[in-house]
Write a structure and sequence with these properties.
Length: 621
């Protein structure tokens, strides 16, 4: 248990605790946000000591729930949201308790009377929660690294490494170590008598029609009300609050709502001076329009490449470029604030990515395309040139006919690498087990809906959410995004695509809200993302990267043929800059895991943990 807690020390720097029952141990690292006193210590126990909870997250409506429970006779000793979980479980039971919660959360609750353990993750999967259940033993934690530190993780999972080399991250369907699973978003895992079961308590209502169709104007007005309510809830804290401000509209709207509600926060921006991705000028202009305090944290290609910081902050290999910016701004902000408001989720809910519009157009074409023409395209698509205007037109027809299979085939960096002989035998073997098979000619008629599901289950929950959680928690910050409110998602996901993409504009609802409340200038800005241009800067970093890859774990274990990454004798890249970045991050991650494992063994000199169930879970209390 001590090793697991040590692995979570940066995520919970304010306090640590352990509680035990017969054959059961709960451990906890705390980041104190509500009630900074010792009364918020965890694990938190019921008055009779038979129920214990460890909690990571924030329950934004906990004061309302507390009032309801107090009226029923429950006495509270702290001002934390954690205590609501204990009394709420006693009053309503687990399922009804979870349905009442509004927030981001991952928690484990042990009921010694029933000899049952409950693991619960929030509806959208904002907070991480992993577990290992083998041979009648249950262990769980916030990170796979903590499970591994306790001796509960198996060997490297080849499927997870393959996912990383394709996407630059590991999805929620996989874990980098065998015998480790991720609790699904919106799920409750119950462990009893040496066995576990899963129950989903919430599903995202993709494109379900509202009882009454909503017009575009109505959607803008409701979005404003929901955003203000969501921001109001997330300003609740007993510590200083800041905000992340890019040049785009999502974070601008969050900062507008803060100002509208009378909140006092400082907005922070990652700048990349001299690069086309730099948003600091736009962000500064937005801050001036809103009248809020603003600071810029600059990062450039001339800075040292701090990949060690990246691999230490994320317990699975993670190569998201903007994570470098998130880590840097989190480091800078940690001296002044402990809660950070972000604009994450706006693009995902209100359809802000170019792929959203492409898939919507492709589906509309697919529904109107005669079956004979669809079959004809499938038979001749390979002879159509994929250059210039033909490239985009051919891709659109692929989506309109083959649907999501065509989308999957075009994702990732592995196709070109396989052709150039860069992939090792272990990667090639894993690829053989993941063939998509033959395309179905009429799948394009539902490609938009299928793409929303694919995006939600891959990039949204596997990349976008972990990026922010890993970077902020690494520096003892709690990130809160108003656009990740489940009430907003239940409403917004029912909006018709032609409302969210009004007049074929990406994120039309939020753009119009920005136009009305901030300025047309901000509303009309093109999306650039909160990014760091690694794909351009990596050539500057090549002298640092090449020596690391020379003596390579990837080469030794059959993942990548390192000598093929560069052309001989010119040493120009033989792969995309993105794949070189992936290879460098993965190599660094393998080395870090080995070094951490050796360090932990030397520090604690303990046998693998054998308690059941076991836990290490940090808390944002």
């Amino acid at each position: 248990m001590q090793r697991m807690l040590a692995a979570l020390a940066r995520r919970g720097p304010d306090d640590a605790g352990i509680a035990s029952w017969d054959g059961v141990v709960l451990g906890h690292r705390r980041l104190a946000i509500f009630d900074l006193s010792p009364l918020g210590h965890q694990p938190m126990l019921s008055r009779d000591g038979h129920v214990g909870v460890v909690f990571n997250g924030a329950i934004y409506n906990f004061k309302e729930l507390r009032e309801d429970l107090a009226k029923k006779g429950y006495a509270f000793k702290s001002r934390t949201d954690t205590e609501v979980l204990l009394h709420g479980y006693a009053e309503w039971g687990m399922l009804e308790l979870v349905r009442r919660l509004r927030g981001m959360f991952a928690f484990g609750l042990w009921d010694d009377h029933r000899r049952s353990l409950f693991l619960v993750r929030d509806r959208l999967g904002v907070k991480p929660l992993v577990f290992s259940a083998t041979n009648g033993t249950m262990a769980f934690a916030s990170t796979t690294r903590a499970l591994r530190a306790g001796g509960f993780a198996g060997t490297i999972n080849d499927d997870a490494i393959l996912e990383f080399m394709r996407y630059g991250f590991v999805t929620d369907d996989q874990a980098v170590y065998r015998e480790v699973r991720k609790v699904p978003a919106g799920a409750i895992i119950q462990w009893k008598n040496g066995e576990w079961s899963e129950r989903r308590y919430w599903e995202l209502p993709f494109l379900e029609e509202a009882e009454k169709p909503v017009s575009f104007q109505e959607a803008v007005e409701v979005a404003e009300d929901l955003l203000l309510e969501s921001v109001r809830l997330r300003l609740e804290a007993d510590v200083p609050v800041g905000a992340l401000l890019s040049g785009g509209i999502d974070s601008a709207l969050v900062c507008w709502a803060v100002a509208r509600l009378g909140g006092k926060v400082t907005a922070f921006t990652v700048g990349t001076p001299g690069d086309e991705w730099d948003e600091s000028r736009d962000a500064r202009r937005t801050a001036q329009l809103l009248g809020i305090d603003h600071q810029i944290v600059n990062i450039s290609g001339n800075h040292d490449l701090k990949v060690d910081e990246l691999v230490s902050a994320y317990s699975e290999p993670f190569a998201c470029e903007s994570a470098l910016g998130m880590l840097r701004v989190s480091h800078a902000m940690a001296e002044n604030v402990k809660v950070l408001l972000t604009g994450d989720g706006g693009d995902d809910l209100f359809l802000g990515y170019p792929e959203h519009l492409n898939m919507w157009i492709a589906e509309r074409i697919g529904r109107r395309l005669p079956e004979a023409l669809a079959k004809g395209w499938m038979s001749c698509r390979n002879i159509v040139p994929r250059k210039g205007v033909f490239r985009r037109a051919a891709a659109l027809l692929d989506y309109s006919t083959a649907g999501i299979d065509a989308v999957r085939e075009k994702e990732g960096e592995l196709g070109e690498c396989r052709q150039k002989g860069i992939l090792g035998h272990r990667t090639l073997h894993a690829l053989r087990d993941h063939s998509n098979g033959a395309w179905v000619h009429n799948s394009g008629r539902r490609v938009f809906r299928d793409f929303l599901g694919l995006h939600q289950n891959t990039r949204f929950i596997g990349q976008y959410l972990p990026k922010v959680d890993g970077a902020t928690m690494n520096y003892g910050l709690e990130a809160r995004s108003p656009f990740l409110d489940h009430v907003m998602w239940e409403w917004g996901s029912r909006l018709a695509p032609d409302v969210r993409l009004h007049r074929l504009k990406l994120k039309a609802v939020l753009r119009e809200l920005t136009r009305r409340k901030i300025s047309p200038e901000v509303a009309d800005r093109k999306k650039r993302g909160f990014g760091v241009p690694v794909h351009r800067w990596i050539r500057k970093w090549q002298p640092t990267i090449a020596p690391v890859l020379k003596e390579s774990c990837l080469q030794r274990d059959g993942w990548v043929r390192i000598e093929r990454l560069w052309k001989e004798p010119s040493q120009d890249l033989n792969c995309s800059p993105t794949f070189l970045w992936y290879a460098y991050v993965l190599e660094s991650w393998f080395r870090y895991e080995h070094e951490v494992s050796e360090s932990v063994m030397r520090q604690f000199q303990l046998e693998p943990c054998a308690t059941k169930p076991g836990l290490a879970l940090e808390k944002l209390a």
